[in-house]
Amino acid sequence: MKHLAPILWVYFLTTFSSFAQNRTLKLDAAVTTTDQVTIKGKVVPYKATAGTQPVYDENGKPIASLFYVYYERSDVTDRTTRPLFISFNGGPGAASCWMHIGYTGPKRVKVDSEGYPVQPYGVTDNPHSILDVADIVYVEPVNTGFSRPVNDSIPRSKFFGVNADIKYLAEWLNMFVSRKNRWPSPKYLIGESYGTTRVSGLALELQNANWMYLNGVILVSPTDLGIDRKGPVAAANMLPYYAATAWYHKVLPTDLQQKDLDAILPEVEQFTINELTPAIVKGGFLEPEKRKQMAAKIARYSGLSEKVVLEHNLAVPSSFYWKELLRDKGFTVGRLDSRYLGIDRQGAGERPDYAAEYDSWKHSFTPAINYYLREKLNYKTDLKYFISGQTGQWDRAGQNTDRTGENLRQAVAQNPYLHVMIQSGYYDGATDYFNAKYNLWNMDPSGKLKNRLQWKGYRGGHMMYLRDEDLATSTEDIREFVKKTLPKPDQPAKY
């Protein structure tokens, strides 16, 4: 059953010269459909609203329109205690489709059990969706999905910067929550990749500028969040990821290879913290014998040769690692998920020709999201769905300096209800799992908030949920997180 929501439809044209095309954009519109999905053996009926809502400037003038999809469980009558999840993806120019039809939504992209594309393209029911425990809105920032500025005269600086992005999205969310009457509901932010930068900043901006307090923030494959790790720490911290990748591809020494991954990684992490970082700190003044010992151990854990490790002064760049690990077998490994293999024009070189995993994901997600939004959710538009890459140069300096890790720490400190969970894939080389742990350890130097910060690891990559096994585990971890962070009746937020 489908019907148009009873709100004003306003149309205007926006031109994007890089694509030499005009498209009609709906500034403020929505269409609603109904459906149901079976989750954990129980039927969950829901309604899905696909629509747009304006972004206003400080003078109340519309400057952009954001596309969203909002799912509400339809057999719930009282939403005052019903959690609302607000979901963002990353990039910063990535659309929301990845978690929308890959992770938490009621429909899931058709892929095999390990996440590889299959045909025919499309979506299927997601038996692990979190819609049983929470309503969800997937938000597309400007120039992702169907979201656009109203015209080319609008300065992109209003949208395309660390803190500019946070500011306008917080204002937009204030209006969305007001329109949907969700102020009483417990609220959660969930972001993936650059979306973790976004939601970490939003946690404080929503509190301080919009007086909206959260129960939880979930960081899926987090960025560095502006937490300093330059120099020796940055160089050393990649080794645990290298070890996981080498284990997956079965190139570790026999005694390590025959162990389970969970048995190997703690050993590598301790070596990284206690031996490798101090060794790299000494640079060229590290004793020759110690240098050889370090190279041998790095080679043992990474699957590389001692010669290669020494040539890189114990600090092997990740781009070189993706090219080198399986060079003798004729393959590269993926950046965002090192389980994926690529084939380069030639074996020589310092980095792969392309990102094998990302091309695989776009292969399955692009046709699926276009089909789903247009045919199943009945959202009709001639706009191109921007799946990635349309946000240009992102401002990370000056007023847009990234301090989002500190923003999140401050939000947690100010709000005794607020908890944080990090989810990481062991085979993610772009936002690797050990640096995610480093975030957790260094976000709160005092240690006074650590009982509200937790980390979970999975045997996938950047989008660990593409594996059936990880999808089941990671969504269950979200359910447990919600259960843990919903206060008991009359439990006050105080220390």
UniProtKB/TrEMBL annotation:
GO biological process terms on file: proteolysis
Signal peptide: 1-20
Gene3D superfamilies: alpha/beta hydrolase
Pfam families per record: Peptidase_S10
InterPro entries: AB_hydrolase_fold, Peptidase_S10
Keywords tagged on the record: Carboxypeptidase, Glycoprotein, Hydrolase, Protease, Signal
Gene Ontology MF term list: serine-type carboxypeptidase activity
Domain of life from the UniProt record: Bacteria
Transmembrane segments: none
Record's protein name: Carboxypeptidase
